[in-house]
Amino acid sequence: MSTTHEIPTTFDPGTYEENWLRRWLESGIFAADPGAPGEPFSIVIPPPNVTGALHMGHALNNTVMDILCRYHRMRGRNVLWLPGTDHAGIATQSVVERELAKEKKTRHDIGREQFVIRVWKWKEEYGSRIIHQLKRLGSSCDWSRERFTMDEGLSLAVREVFVRLYREGLIYKGEYLVNWCPASRSAISDLEVEYREENGNLWHIRYPLADGSGHLVVATTRPETMLGDTAVAVNPEDDRYRHLHGKSVRLPLMDREIPVITDGMVDREFGTGAVKITPAHDPNDYRAGHRHKLPMINVMNPDGTINGNGGPYQGLDRYEARKRIVADLEAQGLLEKVGKHRNRVGYSQRHGVPVEPLISEQWFVKTGPLAAEALKAVKDGRTTFHPAQWANTYYAWMERIEDWCISRQLWWGHQIPAWYCGDCGHINVEMSAPVKCTKCGSKNLRQDEDVLDTWFSSGLWPFSTMGWPDETETLRKYYPTSVLVTAHDIIFFWVARMMMMGLHFMGEVPFRNVYIHALVRDAEGQKMSKTKGNVIDPLSVVDEVGADSVRFTLAAFAAQGRDIRLSRDRIEGYRKFITKLWNAARFVQMKLGGPVPELVPESKMSPADLWVRRELGIASREVARAIEAYEFDKAALAAYHFVWGTYCDWYIEFVKQDLAEGADPARSEVARSVLGNTLLDTLKLLHPFVPFVTDELASRLKPGGEFLMKGNFPATEVPEASEAIRQVENLRLAITAVRNIRGELNVKPSGFVDVQVRGEGAALLLGQFRGQFTALARIRTLSELAAGAARPKASAQAAVGRLEIIVTFPDGIEVEKERDRLVKQIAGREDELKKLTQKLSNQGFVANADPDLVDEYRERESGLKLELEKLKQSLARLADFGAA
Predict the structure, then answer these.
(1) What pLDDT is attached to residue 2?
(2) CA dihedral 809, 812, 815, 818 (to 10 degrees)
(3) 261, 348, 557, 662: which sits with the fewest CB atoms below 10 Å from its CB?
(4) Which whole-number Å values give the CA distances from 234 to 76, 217, 298, 519, 594, in the listed order?
(5) Where are the beta strands (DSSP E) in 373-510?
(6) Phi first, then psi: what are they for 106, rounded to 5°?
(7) For the whole model, what pTM was predicted?
């Protein structure tokens, strides 16, 4: 055989992965053709931020999508995997503003037009980084269709949706309490708020009663917001304050009279049981303010300083104002005490500053009518969640959904298509800039300076990326998409929005299935973060061990409903699996002496050949079933066990004698055919998980063949087991039985044992299968024990159906020492099992412990029970041993 295609001795993915990526991309194999035959299967990529870099969450998300797309292409589906990136308003603007800061400039210094030009320039230079990283992972997207949420087509779709919703009365402008980032001076979404547990204070402040009869002590964690208090609230069931119902207090420092109100939201156990109500600066207070029709006084400027409503504290930063307010309260004898308190503080994810709840005039989508249909679509099965329990999270959110704030005070993004008339005040909402006011005809128009929330444009992603509002061939073929693959924390912010928008504008759900994948944590179950230093960078690991090892590890641990505990050791473990596959392919290539021949008909196959082909069918059926059920861990492990256990550890060993020098040439030819073709089919089975190594090995085993992704997935039909196949299975069980006894007796791997057999199947072991049985079980002498004859005293016995296997106790094995060893092992396992069982029977522990830890303990408990059963069986085998 030519050395050009010879499989190298050393497995080194760095020598071929880049080459295969280039070949795939140049071939156009990933491209979707709506005019081609085949049932459509489509996915739109959850668009990563254009500022982003690949992390393990991206790696898992895209590995899952790639498994689905490669698998369905191999099953003959017409697949579209549509890629793209999100313009990430706040994140991208922040990056460019930091660049400007290096020049000692702000965006205001250069103006909006020049700033946007700078952002586009940055995007062109750096915005493709994550796309290149996704390609490096092997993602088989149709890269010719790559979209960007700010490209011309998507911008048109955004304006179309905004205008339609506005004219339908589903978009309006009004005041509302929003998450305000003082650093970016913009409203931000809940998703962009990161909560941290911090040590803080609880200030107890005396609010004098307006009638001069005393004071009411109020506890607060944010004294600076008291400048905007419009009430003090107590629980109506709190007897301590019944005498104050309907009375008023004087607001300290501001000398403003405010009422004492009763509201069931007040926690009687918090602080003094009396709380200040600041509707313009707290979500709960905001709702209470509406219930009681209280004034809403905003005391903050957009930059986090105190505004004119803050009286003498105007102009101070909010935290400087806090210090001054506390000092003034103390000086006036109104600060009763200060206690320690653990706070949950919201921070702007992008800027790292505490978020300020703030009343602000913003644009909103009226979500009630949209959410009702989106809720119904999941309940009636038009869209299905996997795992199913995530539908409950979706229901809970949609049933209590509030109107959606869609405006952001940024310059980068889709500028709101609304123009204000300077003469009559009318708001003109149009697809393009109007020449004159539609109400009064004035040309004195000014466009709203705000941009739309990033989620607004990405909420249109499943149909805007396919050409909507035009009715394109792509849209007709591939919408609705087959599945959305995403993480659970995006259900509220993206899944819900896409469902509402898709149903409203397309009249159909955006996806038939939603697969919620796990979160990737470190080996201890902790969230990965740079602060903790426990981040595993996928690209650095890809450079070390190859993309396939990373992909297979993520798939193997992607169990539904459980987070992934990832470590480099686990990735290295699956690298060894791929190395095993590589070495098996080298062995097969060496035995073939040339390209893989055509597969011989079953009539020519040996029992071992028929057995391995049936086992391949069983594995293929399970892999296909599991992928289609979104059980990627089960799919990966079914493939793993076939490769390592069935093909490498058994079949290759079964046929070595048929391939040895001097073997029957006709039998060798058949063995080579089955050995080679089964390996090629195994590479197809593995291809969705590990595309690089499988295409590499297939191209060397059968040069000139097509990409595996264009080939057929191995057949999943499994015929009934023939008598010949059952005989091979019994041979495997017999070998395993002897190996187990050898292990129990601590026989060295190089040592041999003497074996006797009798009963059903003995003749096959003594005849047709004698070579495989003696070689694989390392048997020195093999003979038949006559029916009715007593077995040797110093022997161990095992049964495979009606076949009896007797292993004579080897020379040099000391029975008593073996008994002692087993007794000690049993005692140790029983002690460990007892402790675990006690811990798991403690309901307090189970209720409060990390669920992953509880699962780990339960798995260990189950494993210990199996170990004990085997150890006790081994001890029983030694029970009647005499001296050897």
Answers:
(1) 38
(2) -110
(3) 662
(4) 67, 11, 23, 41, 87
(5) 384-386, 404-405, 407-408, 418-421, 427-429, 445-447, 451-452, 481-487
(6) -120, 170
(7) 0.85
